[in-house]
Design brief:
334 residues; mainly alpha; 2 strands; 65% helix; globular
Length: 334
């Protein structure tokens, strides 16, 4: 009797195991939709990589070789690369980078690189671009974080509800977003054509309000309530408790905004004419002296690659950190 019971007890888990295996096999059946999406994404990524590789290959060609063989690989032995003015470039492997050096030199001579009648250097363009792309989203996100926190944390007050409604309506009633109005107001308040004035103008919650507000709403209030019971003030709760627990979304928003502002050439044209950025000069570069060597495709592509390359570095550095960022909503248990 005892042995029989033992056999029956052992047989039940075996049956359950078989049922689980069958269930897992059914569940592991490949789905068609994710496979199609993955194939499409791989094709899209391969197309982008192919275009970038082709751009580098073209930028490392001589002007004469590009006319005869636009799709071939660089051949510096038969077609040594010269500077746009006709002078010889570096010898050996360094000759492949002649167009990049020439693009830097001629971008500095572009009509878009003039400030007060004098051309600025390529380094100055880079500094202007860094000040513009790093400072603009920084001040917008900092002020937006504070404003959205107040609207998400203190909705019980009537004036806070009024501000919330005002911000929502402001999204549909553009006033200062109009270019002509913005330029007029910037000149009126003596902020036009000043980098610090542009940073001050960008302060406000409207640009990233929905994203930042949602990040505060998703953060539990238990932390703030527990700290308030212990005697913590409003500033202590915000800067030492709530803000450290809500860094993932603002950080990702800031990084993507920096990358977007780096290639933004229209805003510096309108609001910062004395701070020509590298993106604006590269855009205007293709229209300067179209009858000279500057109009050659390899040199223009080299100039565009000089604009794109600096943003690859922060993306490669931050990609591992961005993968580790967690957006999970957590709270106090117990």
């Amino acid at each position: 009797m005892i042995l029989g019971k033992a056999k029956n007890a052992a047989a039940i888990p075996a049956n359950e195991t078989n049922d689980k295996k069958k269930h897992i096999r059914k569940r592991e059946k490949p789905q068609l939709f994710p496979i199609i999406v993955q194939i499409a994404m791989w094709i899209w990524c391969a197309a982008i990589v192919l275009l970038v590789v082709w751009a580098f290959i073209t930028a490392m060609k001589a002007f004469t070789q590009y006319d005869f063989d636009p799709l071939g690989f660089p051949n510096i032995k038969e077609y040594p690369i010269l500077y746009p003015d006709g002078s010889e470039g570096p010898k050996g492997v360094a000759n492949l980078f002649t167009n990049f050096i020439g693009a830097m030199q001629y971008m500095s001579k572009s009509s878009a690189a003039k400030v007060n009648g004098e051309n600025i250097s390529f380094i100055r363009m880079m500094i202007n671009s860094l000040l513009f792309c790093l400072g603009t989203p920084f001040f917008a996100i900092v002020t937006g974080m504070i404003f959205s926190y107040v609207l998400a944390r203190y909705r019980q007050y009537k004036f806070v509800n009024f501000l919330f409604v005002f911000v929502i309506l402001k999204q549909f009633i553009p006033t200062t977003e109009n270019a002509g109005t913005s330029v007029y107001l910037l000149k009126l308040f003596k902020l036009y054509d000043k980098m610090w004035g542009w940073w001050l103008w960008c302060c406000g919650p409207l640009g990233f309000f929905y994203v930042l507000y949602a990040s505060w709403v998703g953060l539990p209030k238990e932390y703030a309530e527990a700290a308030q019971i212990d005697g913590a003030g409003y500033f202590t709760i915000f800067f030492r408790i709530m803000l450290p627990n809500n860094t993932a979304i603002p950080l990702v928003t800031y990084i993507t905004s920096v990358i977007g502002h780096w290639t933004n050439y229209t805003t510096p044209i309108l609001y910062l004419p004395s701070y020509p950025s590298i993106a604006f000069v590269a855009y205007k570069f293709q229209f300067d002296n179209n009858t000279s060597a500057v109009s050659y495709v390899p040199l223009q592509i080299a100039a565009l690659l000089l604009v794109s390359l600096p943003m690859i570095i922060p993306v490669l550095i931050m990609q591992s950190k961005m993968k580790k960022l967690k957006f999970n909503v957590v709270g106090i248990k117990g």
